[in-house]
Amino acid sequence: LCPTVVVTGPVFDAEFLSGGAPPLLMEDLGTLASSLKIGAFHPDSHDAGTYTESTTTTPWTDGTTTLRIWQHSNGNPQDAIVGVSAASEPLDLKYYSNKRSTVQILHSATNAPAFEFRNPPKFQGGNRRDAHYETEEVLDSYFYHPNTGPFISTRLIQRFGVSNPSPGYVGRVAAAFRTGRFNINDGITGNDNNDNGITFGTGKYGDLESTIAAILLDPDARTPVLDADPTHGSVREPLLKVLHFLRSMEYSHSSDQFLILTSLHSRIGEMAYDQKSVFSFFLPEYGAPGPVSSAGLVSPEAFAFDTPPVVHLMKGLFSLIKFGMTNCDGGFGRGRSRCYAWAEGDYRHTMGRLTYGPLRRNNPEQMVGELDVLLTGGRLSSESRAVILDALDDDRFKDDDDDGDVDDGKLRLAQQLFAASPEFHSAHNLIRLNDNDESREHSGPAREPSAPYKVIVHIFMVGGADTFNLLVPHSGCSAAAGGTDLHEEYRLMRGNVALSKGSLHTIDASSSKQPCDTFGIHPRLPLLRELYDGDEAAFFANAGGMKKLSAKHDYRSNHGGFGLFGHGFQARVQTVNGGRGDLFGTGVLGRLADALSDDGYLTATLSTGGSGTASKASIVRGNPYSDTKTSSMGGTFGPTPFDPTPSVRSMRTIIDSMNDATDPLRSGMFGESWSAAMTKSLDDNDYFFELLNTVHPTTKFPTGTKLGSDLRFVSQMVKVRRERGVERDIFSINIGNFDSHSGLRPNSLPTTTTASSHTPCAFISSRN
């Protein structure tokens, strides 16, 4: 090891402290202040007479930074305290020790300094007072960090309806957050002298009144012409759509019990106070497949675009309209016995119902106009309006005796069609193509499969899985690694959480190019060794996000802006990264499937991610113009019939016509994303429901786990491979709860993993 030495000295010398001009004063005081790294307590917290403020030298100020100095009674410059106030950090004053501590690494031959770095300070030594102070300081450093304002502003703007805010929009909201002021007159902050507008905020840093006012009243939020920008707006959150419908359609609760929306998160992917991850319901960097991801944009709410949540949202809204708050036909309510015995519009046995009535029930155009204002904000396209009015002209709704009864059915039909319109599910204008040939495709098997069938089942462990204990270097490492014993290195680095050699299930890697001849698998996963030895499992080790050796100064340019320090970013690196150009936004398994399709195989990919998982269906997303069939299915409830008792026989045809392809150059891309997702989800749901009714697993799968239900579903899909017209299948399953955190132990694995050791056994035995 090289010799080291710690060199300590003052940041500002005695001459400066006693009245001399700072050497860099003509440049800026911020440069001086940046040299202060070690915090100090307030001078008044020391014994009386210990510190005295130097009135002859301070305060120094250059208009943006102010320095104040307190000298120690012992006269040592290192013990002086410097107070710093910067306009960019709105704390009154921060106190620093006038001390610089540097670690020097000396040349082994000359003892001359060869390299040096700042000596990191030793933090609190265990007492509660210091822990409290240092925690407060850390939180302040986060809160007042220059990036906090733009970060918070971007996330809040996204939640208020603009998924891809412009830099100017973010900058103006961030300024309102930083200054605590927003003036309505001109959409800029800090204009206290403007008497012609209303000013929001208290003038304090982080004021949410000024921040929210800036979000809602900024020109980018209020200018109608932006509705014509295809990239403006957003997909709406599923829970907000449910609550919007309940309020706008005047839901009235008839039960003396509280309104309970049953299993809403499991059904539609979102429920208040029921997020399954610390990363909220949606990933802010998620982009829906199609025009959004192709343009490099994001649509966080499209994270819930898997087939199960899309179908269950539509089922719940339709059931609410037709039967009230019950569980009939997939409703959001708790229960209603004998659903089959009650007709549409019979609300005698419901917990609540929609009570809205238009001003003139017998005037369809006025009724549609009112619903447009209440449900779609006046953005209903002329094409959607025409489809709805044409459906309401059905002979079934002719009220011959003028008693108004049939008109209730007309209202229910209109409400259902509004709930199915892309304008209800997105926040911008839509323009459909006039060419009738641009209807969405409803594909089936391309041809009879002829090649031998093969399948890949990919299990993604979501979170911070301790994979260093999942696959461990065991023996035969020295020669292969140039003299380095990797197991000894593993044992030293892992310390008391390292697994002993004797506890591991060994596998042979001597025929590979790996640095060890033998590796060990975690003692609680013997099945992995069995699969590996049978050539039915493979390990991809050290597949991290780092593309090349990087330092702080070139990390961003080397890695395209992806973060190394968040689960969401890392999941994206593992599942999606690598696609460029025409493949941007495609997933690892999706690109693999496309290659198989290009080789002439009938290929399908399917994600069973369900709602609220980190990698979702992105990993199986391929080139949209390839022949690969991509689906997302599974979830808690599986495929069930959509709208088994439709209000009109042509309901599905009407819904499809309302969600036909939109103009790619002029129409909002978020509505297009919803329409494509909903149409495909309804198709897949109906197709898989009918198909899976023909096969039932003879193997009993463990119950109560997501992995068990997902592998049961996959086994059913494998059994009907010929009916699906597939020669190559790729399935992706997500299982969560792999964050180790403080619970890390040598032999610990998440509960889901322990259960999973039995579940794959059932899947393997179910194969034919």
Topology (elements, then pairings):
Elements: E1 4-9, H1 14-17, H2 29-33, E2 51-53, E3 60-61, E4 65-72, E5 81-86, E6 89-97, E7 100-106, E8 113-118, H3 128-143, H4 148-159, H5 167-179, E9 182-183, E10 199-200, H6 208-217, H7 219-222, H8 238-248, E11 251-253, H9 264-268, H10 291-294, H11 307-323, E12 352-354, H12 364-376, H13 382-392, H14 405-420, H15 422-425, E13 454-461, E14 471-475, H16 486-494, E15 505-508, E16 518-521, H17 526-533, H18 555-559, H19 567-575, H20 588-598, E17 603-607, E18 629-632, H21 651-658, H22 669-692, H23 706-719, H24 721-724, E19 728-735, H25 751-756, H26 759-766
Parallel strand pairs: 13-19, 17-18, 17-19
Antiparallel strand pairs: 1-7, 2-4, 3-4, 4-5, 5-6, 7-8, 9-10, 11-12, 14-16, 15-16
Helix pairs in contact: 4-5, 5-6, 11-14, 11-22, 12-14, 13-14, 23-26
Supply the key terms.
alpha+beta; four-stranded parallel beta sheet; 768 residues; 12% strand
Task: Describe what you observe in this structure.
- The structure is a single chain.
- The chain has 768 residues and is of the alpha+beta class.
- It has 26 helices and 19 strands.
- Strands 2, 3, 4, 5 and 6 form a five-stranded antiparallel beta sheet that branches.
- β3 and β4 (65-72) form a beta hairpin.
- It is globular, with a radius of gyration of 32 Å.
- Mean pLDDT is 81; it is low at 188-194 and 611-615.
TL;DR?
By secondary structure, the protein is α+β, with helices and mostly antiparallel strands.
Number of helical segments with 4 or more residues:
26
Shape: globular
**Strand content range:** 5-15%
Task: Compute the number of strand runs.
Answer: 19
Instruction: Classify the helix fraction into a percent range.
Output: 25-40%
Question: From the helix content, strand content and strand pairing, which structural class follows?
Answer: alpha+beta
Biggest sheet features: 5 strands, antiparallel
